Batch of 2 targets.
Target 1
Amino acid sequence: MGVQPEAIDPDGRRSRVRQPDRFGEPEPVGVTVGGPVVDEPQSLGLDPSGPVACDPLSTKLSVTGFQSVKTKGKQTFSLGLTNNTAANCVLTLSPSTYVLKVSSGNDRIWTTADCTKLVPVKKTTLKPGASYEFKIDWTLKRSKPGCKLVDKELGAGTYVATASFQSSGNARFVMQLKK
């Protein structure tokens, strides 16, 4: 058995390149994790082919709705999270991992953080390119903690809905409220 050349994988970790042994079979090789070579996941009883948690930076978010809404109307947001990787991943959606907020300039108008029951609680495996989609209705009122709304009508103007997943990636949707 000779020295095995090192390679850098796409995640920036060093690993050993598999070289055939004297019988033409690849020798088992471990992964270097900042030190000595460790066993492969299979020998540790781990299933490397099993899905891992969806990485927020590799999860594409989407927000859509009506581009123009009357101030006395209602906005229905269509929201999605898409697995943008080549492997299955487990999506854990909850009020602690997903927030939708509406703002106008620097003014925070409404957010699911004020009424967490608006965000579905869901744990599902997403195949590569697959999406989980859901809807949230906004009554075009300001929100306050405890699922309370301010009864005063919002003014006409530009409002932006922003979705975020695990405080990372986000998606924006611009809409107009009209009298």
Target 2
Amino acid sequence: MAPTVGDSLERRWTGGSVPPALPARGPVDGTLLMTVAMCYSGMDYEVVHTDDVPMTDLSAVDEIPPDLRIRALDDFFDTDALNLKLWYFEPGEEIQYHAHAEQEELYYVLEGEFSLKLGRSGEETYVDAGPGTFWIAKPEVGHGHRNVGDEEGVVLAIGAPAVEDPGLDPHGLDDGD
């Protein structure tokens, strides 16, 4: 049976017991209290609470702007087909407007208030986004976002295919015609 909002990890597991390695974390309330990955090679599962995924401070990595913090869920789960990150933004922090050659990215705001810059060069649009908002950026389509709120913001980013695809300047790309 699939978990529903309000189900606890304890009730969802097998018959009400929690495996010794997985302490109950409380009810699932729609804010990504836990991440569940299922590998289809014979019913293998991995379950982790967000707090158990190491936080990486990108300010310590010279080659990777911006100076934000992330939880690299894709590294933790060793995913093959997608990149999966939780990005943490203090007020005013941003990921600048950029594009990717191959990767499509889906974003979801978990916490905070953001201003999004979306669209091809010369056709950019600004959109406000708060908790519960999704947006997608196809390959070669510019996108960026800034935390415009007064508190920390958290964004889930899912990118596929899982390739090294550094950001490109959208102003230098053809319009696809």
